[in-house]
Amino acid sequence: MQVKNACARRASLQPRTPRIVGNNNSTTTSLDEQHAITTQILGFLLHPFIPPPSPTAKIADVGTGTAAWLLDLARSLPPTCQFTGFDVTPSGFPHESARPKNVTFKLHDMFVPFPEEEHGNYDVVAVRFVSSATRRGDFARAVGNLVKLLKPGGWLQWIDSVNFGLYCGVAGLSREACQEVYEGLEPFRSQAAGGENGKGEDDGGPVIGLFVRDAWPSKARAVRERVFQEQGLVDVHEDVFSTDRLQKPELRLREKGTRNIMDCFLGCLGELVGVEGSGWTKERLDALRVKVMREIDGGVYHTLDQVCLVGRRPEQG
Ligand SMILES: C[S@@+](CC[C@H](N)C(=O)[O-])C[C@H]1O[C@@H](n2cnc3c(N)ncnc32)[C@H](O)[C@@H]1O
Fold first, then answer.
1. What's the CA-to-centroid distance between 316 and ligand 1, angstroms?
2. Per-residue model confidence as pLDDT tens digits over 50-95
3. Confidence band (pLDDT; 50, 70, 90) for 1?
4. Could you tell me the distance, in angstroms and rounded to a whole number, from the CA of residue 312 to the centre of ligand 1?
5. Domain limits at 299?
6. Is residue 222 in a domain?
7. pLDDT value at position 12?
8. Where is the signal peptide (predicted)?
9. Disulfide: which of 38, 133, 259, 287 matches 192 by Cβ 3.0-4.6 Å?
10. By C-alpha distance, which of 142, 124, 30, 152 is closest to 88?
11. Whose Cα sits closest to atom 14 in ligand 1?
């Protein structure tokens, strides 16, 4: 089974879930659009706890995709800084003619230890929107690999989504079709949790990612922060921003964002078509899509929590 859309790329973070192949213009457009919106919601590319990079700084973006974040940051820093984008697939990498001289791209899966020549090289390592439903153990493994990339004193920043919610823009709306899509993602959550019962080696569900709903948000935050601390980081902190933070009705962000995310979820469900016992057929999905878009036309919208975790590698150790 191969995953083919931008959203399901996040699912590919899990070692046991499929890898994506290929890329297309609409995927690129939606990632770039998502970048612009996210940057406005958060209000930063680098968390304010991270000191402004020096003119000789080296910055890595892991799971870089189209490198929207990395290229934006490169534009805002001196051209003497060096930028590296890592990804498991080159399909999103910008064409060579569109790459500034100080930006390079490398293939790497963050679950696999990085080559030793990459260790201790980077002032900042950033990760954004790479997970759909990641267990604590997998999260810790990725963070452990990323920490090794940092120079002493360097910072890790991980931005991801959790806590999808559906809301009515006006009274009396049906949200059933949108809800059916979100609930349909359960097989991906169970898979991440290590089996049908949602119990895996971590004895709990996924702790970070787009499909994750924190049962107890303060505990979930503490778990994620503890993973950073256990991997040797200090000054660990998680912020959370709602996608609703930006109030610019003229941009129709609620509607556009909800269409984007439902498109993305429907793409993930498309991966279940033909999977025995899934209950998903192309006809069911097509009919559901029509209902979903009608609900959004009527004013149903979503929110997500965008969490930003930061932590610093100590100068010593
Ligand atoms: C939704 S895109 C986000 C791209 C970019 N970070 C952004 O915020 O625009 C997720 C990206 O993570 C990459 N990815 C998924 N699992 C990965 C892994 N284990 N190691 C490295 N990259 C991974 C995918 O190939 C994809 O390009």
1. 31
2. 999 999 999 999 999 999 999 999 999 999 999 999 999 999 999 9
3. very low
4. 22
5. 6-312
6. yes
7. 39
8. none
9. 133
10. 142
11. 63
- Identify the band that residue 203 occupies on the pLDDT scale cut at 50, 70 and 90: low
Q: State pLDDT tens for residues 231-248.
A: 999 999 999 999 999 888
Which of 87, 112, 138, 268 to mutate to test ligand 1, by most ligand atoms within 8 A of the CB atom? 87
The answer to whether position 83 is within a domain reads yes
Pocket of ligand 1 (CB under 6 A): 6, 9-10, 12-13, 20, 31, 35, 62-65, 68-69, 86-89, 92, 109-111, 128-130
pLDDT digit string (tens) for 37-46? 899 999 999 9
pTM of the model: 0.89
- Domain annotation covers residue 242: yes
Residue 32 CA to ligand 1 center (angstroms) comes to 13
DSSP reduced 3-state for 145 = helix
Q: Is 46 exposed, middle or buried (0-12, 13-18, 19+ CB in 10 A)?
A: buried
What CA–CA distance (Å, rounded) separates 148 from 140? 13
- CA 177 – ligand 1 centroid, Å: 28
CA of residue 25 to ligand 1 center, whole Å:
16
* Count of CB atoms situated within 10 Å of the CB of 155: 24
Q: What is the CATH number of the domain that holds 52?
A: 3.40.50.150
